[in-house]
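agent> Task received from the user: take the single chain below, predict its 3D structure, and emit structure tokens. No templates, no multimer pairing.
agent> Plan: (1) validate residues, (2) run structure prediction, (3) serialize to tokens, (4) report one or two observations.
agent> Step 1 OK, no nonstandard residues flagged.
tool_call: predict_structure(input=
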Amino acid sequence: MALIIEDGSVVPGAESYATTAELAVYAANFGKTLPADEAAQEALLRRATLQMEAMPWKGCTVRWDQPLSWPRADVRKNGFTILSNTIPPSVKAGQMALAAEIYADDLIDPATKQGAIIEDTVGPITTKFAAAASTVTKAAAIRQSYAQFTGLVQSGSQVKLSRS
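)
tool_result: status=success, residues=164
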């Protein structure tokens, strides 16, 4: 199913800010790897959008019934007010960066994302768990893509999102 793209006009059913064509150009420009299948690229953009929906954006949505967090009203960045009928280029770029980071996370062997298995016995109960390794990579939402969102999220907010 083709993505429904938000363009700043509060598109009903919108699920992405970027198209797969734009994602492919982004990946080529920044040396990122993406799946070749367009449906898989759409899924990555949808997953990135879902993570972005949890971010503490500045301002407020333009309409109560809009499907995505953008467009927004009352947002200022670098001293300028962002028009409430636009999607800032950094929001679109951040979504594409996040989509590429999610895909990179998907390619990492899950076994490398955990530490050693620890066994703990207290009385008759034995528990086994994997301690987080010190080399575990950070969740995609707090890496390069987050730099794109600087100035658009509420100050003092820390984005802490889990892996998809």
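agent> Step 4: summary for the user.
The beta strands are 60-61, 72-73, 76-77, 80-81, 117-122, 125-130.
agent> Done.
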